[in-house]
Write a structure and sequence with these properties.
Distance between the termini: 30 Å
Number of strands: 0
Oligomer: single chain
Largest sheet: none
Order of helices and strands: HHHHH
Helix content: over 70%
Low-confidence stretches: none
Structural class: mainly alpha
Mean pLDDT: 95
Number of helices: 5
Length: about 80
């Protein structure tokens, strides 16, 4: 609902999506978290920029998910 009302590029929507990805990660649902982190990072890079602290935080979290899945090369590339 939030994305529909505020839009996918709204900062609150981005924060909520990142929080949902983190919750999935905490539940060991790494594949689902990976998908959400990847999607939200794409929007964050476009809206906030690749060096914005929020974008960097989401990228760091994505690397943790990739590491948990033993996708070391992918994690290092991010």
């Amino acid at each position: 609902i939030q994305e529909r009302v505020l839009g996918a590029e709204n900062l609150d929507t981005l924060t909520t999506t990142t929080n949902i990805a983190g919750t999935l990660q905490n539940q060991s649902k790494d594949q689902e978290a990976e998908v959400l982190y990847t999607e939200v990072i794409g929007v964050q890079q476009r809206v906030l920029g690749p060096e914005h602290p929020v974008t960097l935080g989401a990228r760091y979290s994505l690397c943790g998910v990739l590491y948990n899945q033993k996708k070391y090369g992918e994690a290092e590339a991010r």
